[in-house]
Design brief:
Layout lengths: L1 H13 L5 H11 L3 H12 L4 H5 L1 E4 L2 E4 L11 H12 L8 E6 L5 H9 L5 E7 L2 H10 L5 E5 L14 E6 L14 H6 L13 H13 E11 L4 H10 L2 E8 L4 E8 L2
Parallel strand pairs: 3-4, 3-6, 4-5, 6-7
Antiparallel strand pairs: 1-2, 7-9, 8-9
Length: 265
Amino acid sequence: MRSLRSAAVSRLRETGSVFAEDEADLLLATAATPADLDAMVERRAAGLPLEQVLGWAEFCGLRVAVAPGVFVPRRRTEFLADRAIALATAAPPGARAVVVDLCCGSGAVGAALAATVPAPGAELYAADIDPAAVRCARRNIPATVGQVYEGDLYEALPDTVRGRIDVLVANVPYVPTDEVGLLPPEARDHEPLVALDGGADGLDILRRVTAGAPGWLAPGGHLLVETSARQAASAAGVFRRSGLAPQVVTSAEQYATVVIGTPAA
């Protein structure tokens, strides 16, 4: 075992990993055989995100399944999930909040909501345009927990939830097109462009989500969107122009920014 670990650490160090020991321990704990370990180490050495090599990412205390070619949930997005959970749990006793995880990717946010919202839980829906992400999300949000749909934003959702959504979470892509090439190779080479590129100013998908939100939210419902700190003021302006009263909340510890909107009175 020591020799396997030592060999894995050495190979990962050769490729520039600054967390070679920690990564080797995770790979060693996941691999079923020495041959599996070798293959996993080589995939990691080739630049695949560690989470895609392992087949899972840690998110809100869960092991969320992550497949090759699927966006890896970021730890900062736990702040978005936490804010959504707080709103979903504010439903009256005995009531089920209707929650939608839009641009769901692996379904990490929806899975965290399903695992955390107390009984009777949430009526959960999730959607993504990427077929690979939808397949992954259906592993993390099985049919007994919620429904996952494939399609373009609101077009994917059943019409039965229109006007009923209490908490609408959208982890939209928000990297400006010209900055996608500046992302770490793990992201730009191994994650889908559709999950990264937010258009010229990074707010194209956010605009579409906010424009449609008033027609889908229940009275008093909330839209929550993750963005960057430098985009927050512009994003809040988009919310206002869509008829949503915005609130920008941040976490310095998680380096996270979320805009929360409610239909303006």
